[in-house]
Write a structure and sequence with these properties.
This is 23S rRNA (Uracil-C(5))-methyltransferase RlmCD. This protein is an alpha/beta fold and about 350 residues long. It is built from eight helices and 16 strands. The strands form three sheets. A seven-stranded mixed β-sheet has the order 3-2-1-4-5-6-7. A seven-stranded mixed β-sheet has the order 12-11-10-13-14-16-15, with helices on both faces. Helix 6 runs parallel beside helix 7. It is globular.
């Protein structure tokens, strides 16, 4: 928080993880060619040079095994790997996700139509949900617009804080389910919502924080720009018997000012933005509102500090900071901050 110009930061003890291995429940790996063989791996830092690997000790073993099997299919069936430089080839990425209940979802991303589909499925017979994504654009964005279910379930089910959440290929969930419990419990503790209050959960994803807060307050309004995630959030509310949560699809910087302009009395706000942080229009709307508390959940200390500095200059004080080791054995951390209105 030094970047925000704060002194005397009310920093609390970081929440660590007891068994910091094999914790990642999602993996996204590009494919490449070495000699005549198809391999998968990570890109070297600040490049698109593929570094192949055979295992990753912070990744769920089932996810690494899924990548091995898709590579084996490509090698057996002669599927050409996509070349970012020329735009030629087909096989681009595998994205895989596991759940606490042992389910596995795989998305195979190709440039064009999927060839040798039946052969692929023979390599993935025990997978709970198999999808194909077609991405014809010459871009480093992983997913294209078209998703096709090849076999199994339309969505998986994840359990967080005693709630059940439906998860589709595009849904965002934290990648460490153990530390997610600690992260969201901290957000709930800091917010301390009251039974008569209305809370906005901005960047709500599939509604995880929204539904965990719903039992503490009168009304929760979730905002999310990814339409399939909003549909998942609505389904999750229904599946969990939550009737006081509603979900809006759109950009936070557009919908949050609109909520205030329409006269909604918002008492508290949760912000859980992507790494780039919040748009200034969203922060400006919060500053001009009557909201008394803001809980900010962040995976990027730099943008967190920037946004907290903005709110601190417009009537809020930094009340509490608690880091959560969401990504053990890396330099990254999640941080939960409470900003309180100064009267």
């Amino acid at each position: 928080m030094r970047l925000g110009g704060f002194a005397g930061i009310p920093m609390q003890q970081i929440i660590g993880m007891e068994e910091p291995a094999r914790y990642r429940n999602k993996g996204s790996f590009p494919f490449g060619a070495i000699g005549n063989g198809v391999v998968f791996g990570f890109y070297a830092e600040r490049s698109h040079r593929l570094v192949p690997f055979s295992d990753c000790l912070i990744q769920d073993e089932r996810i690494v095994d899924a990548a091995r099997r898709v590579a084996a299919w490509a090698n057996a069936c002669g599927i050409p790997v996509y070349d970012e430089t020329t735009g030629e080839g087909q096989l681009r990425h595998i994205v895989a996700r596991t759940t606490a209940e042992g389910e596995l979802m795989i998305v195979v991303v190709t440039k064009g139509q999927l060839k040798k589909k039946d052969d692929l499925l023979s390599f993935l017979e025990d997978v709970d949900s198999v999808w194909h994504n077609e991405n014809p654009k010459q871009t480093n964005v992983v997913f294209g617009d078209r998703f096709t279910l090849l076999a199994g379930k339309q969505a998986l089910t994840e359990v967080i804080g005693g709630k059940r959440f439906s998860v589709s290929p595009q849904s965002f969930l934290q990648i460490n389910r153990v530390q997610t419990q600690a992260l969201y419990q901290t957000a709930r503790e800091f917010l301390a919502a009251k039974p008569d209050e209305t809370v906005v959960d901005a960047y709500c994803g599939v509604g995880t924080i929204s539904l965990l807060l719903a039992g503490d307050c009168a009304r929760v309004i979730g905002i999310e720009q990814v339409a399939p995630a909003v549909e998942d959030a609505k389904a999750n509310a229904k599946a969990n018997g939550v009737s006081n949560a509603e979900f809006l699809c759109g950009n936070v910087e557009d919908l949050l000012p609109r909520l205030f302009a329409e006269g909604n009395a918002i008492d508290a706000i949760v912000l859980d933005p992507p790494r780039k942080g919040c748009e200034e229009a969203a922060l400006e709307a919060i500053a001009k509102s009557a909201a008394r508390r803001v809980v900010y959940v962040s995976c990027n200390p730099a943008t967190l500090a920037r946004d907290c500095k903005y709110l601190a200059s417009r009537g809020f004080s930094l009340s509490a900071v608690r880091p959560v080791d969401m990504f053990p054995q890396t330099c990254h951390v999640e941080t939960v901050v409470l900003m309180s209105r100064v009267y």
